[in-house]
Write a structure and sequence with these properties.
Strands 1-2 form a two-stranded antiparallel sheet. The radius of gyration is 18 Å and the shape is globular. It has 11 helices and 2 strands, in the order αααββαααααααα. It is mainly alpha-helical and 236 residues long.
Length: 236
């Protein structure tokens, strides 16, 4: 079981609606691969499994469409998203560009206390049992996520909305589902440390370069796995 790091603003808020709860459950199932990419969504089946009426369920499904985790297929209903190799490549190209920018801005703007908290995030990643066993990279979301914290630290709200609202869960879906390629978790962890060192040194140019290389390496790793017909997945 993964160890949990205590960070501010990491706990969910109170007062969630039934739709919020169903949304989070289905979102987690999709992102973790428990609902297979391309699988058809059955509203009656989901309503039965979660014990809810169709109203809250449909609201949750609509929100998942907004996160691009579900797609509507003409005459076939909703399905879990399944990106083609070209679409996946394009997603990583977007991440490479925008997260590189976020890294440069974080080096310029992130307060020293937040840089230290980012080090604590990596320390928690290193202690994770799955990581220690070489089974994958730490995959908690939000403030536990190295990439999320850097985008947040950029101080650019439009960039945050693009990467941490619109594309975040879709990107996490592929980061998690490609998380067990041998050696990649350790390589990724080392790359994260180099990126953080550049941010701490306030070297925005180097931080951007290292983040772009990091995401490009993940993309090339995924493309190699696809080319080999290997359905095991790699960390982003």
């Amino acid at each position: 079981m993964s160890q949990i790091l205590t960070l501010p603003n990491a706990a969910p808020g109170d007062g969630e609606t039934l739709s919020d709860q169903i949304f989070k459950k289905i979102q987690a199932a999709i992102v973790k691969g428990e609902m297979a990419p391309g699988s058809k969504i059955s509203e009656p089946e989901l309503a039965r499994i979660h014990g809810v009426s169709r109203g809250p369920l449909r609201e949750a499904l609509h929100r998942l469409e907004g996160q691009r985790l579900l797609v509507r297929v003409p005459h076939a209903g909703a399905r879990v998203v399944s990106l083609s190799q070209q679409e996946l490549c394009e997603l990583y190209e977007i991440r490479e560009s925008l997260e590189g920018m976020a890294c440069r801005l974080a080096a310029e703007r992130m307060p020293a206390a937040e840089v230290q908290e980012l080090r604590r995030v990596l320390e928690a990643h290193e202690r994770d049992e799955a990581f220690q066993a070489g089974l994958g990279y730490y995959q908690q979301e939000g403030d536990y996520d190295f990439h999320y914290r850097i985008v947040k630290g950029s101080g650019n709200q439009m960039l945050f909305r693009m990467l941490c609202d619109e594309l975040y869960q879709l990107a996490r879906m592929y980061r998690i589902q490609y998380s067990t390629t041998p050696n990649r978790p350790r390589q990724s962890f080392a790359e994260h440390h180099r990126i953080l060192d550049a941010i701490a040194d306030r070297d925005g140019e180097l931080a951007e370069l290292l983040m772009r290389r990091h995401i490009r390496a993940s993309r090339l790793n995924i493309e190699q796995q696809i080319a080999q017909g290997n359905l095991r997945r790699t960390e982003a």
